[in-house]
Amino acid sequence: MKLHWSPRSPYVRKVMVAAHELGLADRIQTVRTVVAMDKPVPELMRENPLSKIPTLVTEDGTILYDSAVIMEYFDSLVGGGKLIPASGPARFVELRRHALANGFLDVLIYWRTERARETPLPSMMHSYQTKLDAILPALDAEIGEIAQTPVGMAQITLAIAGDYMDFRFADLGWRERAPRFSAWQSKFRERPSMVATPVVDA
Fold it and tell me: Locate the GST N-terminal domain: which residues (predicted)?
């Protein structure tokens, strides 16, 4: 399988952590692909018209994109039900928790882009701060229950969001504001799958 990849993308890291958790990492050829919101990549657009990573080309040539889709595909390769429960209430709880975790990453990505502007819009900066102020206590309140479930899409994405906060938003002091989530994330980040996929600003 070929994966369009970057060492600093949290969305790419999601699928790589999943691949390591499922024992699939050695089947993936990573292709360094530099993307930016304002610079579409023609070579990538031949496979993904959105010009976004991660984009996966499977062994039979099928093209998949969006980290959640790729993670579910990986799950299917090992029989399914590992990263996402196959059915029932547990499936929808996992999907909802993943939506929160992935939305958390979305907020951070867009916030970072706004921060980088010569003159950030105060309304947007306030919006991102307000969302973070709601997300952190919600995670802190639920992380105990999340920690009792098998490692899946939600846990992987939440752990990566914590690392991304350290990487790009260390000044916000998120760990002091969400101590239970912080303690869980600090333990999860020691898993071999996380250690094997460090964030690198390159």
Answer: 1-82
The domains found in the chain, sorted by start residue, are 2-77 (3.40.30.10), 88-191 (1.20.1050.10)
User: pLDDT tens per residue, the chain (202 residues)?
Assistant: 999 989 889 999 999 999 999 999 999 999 998 887 777 888 888 999 998 999 999 999 999 999 999 999 999 999 999 999 999 999 999 999 999 999 999 999 999 999 999 999 999 999 999 999 999 999 999 999 999 999 999 999 999 999 999 999 999 999 999 999 999 999 999 999 999 999 887 6
CB of 198 within 8 A of CB of 167?
no
Neighbouring residues of 101: CB distance < 8 A, sequence distance ≥ 6: 153, 154, 157, 158, 161
Half-sphere exposure of 39 (CA within 13 A, CB side): 4
SS3 state at 38: coil
Q: Would you tell me how many other CB atoms lie within 10 Å of the CB of residue 136?
A: 19
pTM of the model: 0.95
| Token pair of 160 as six digits | 């990566």
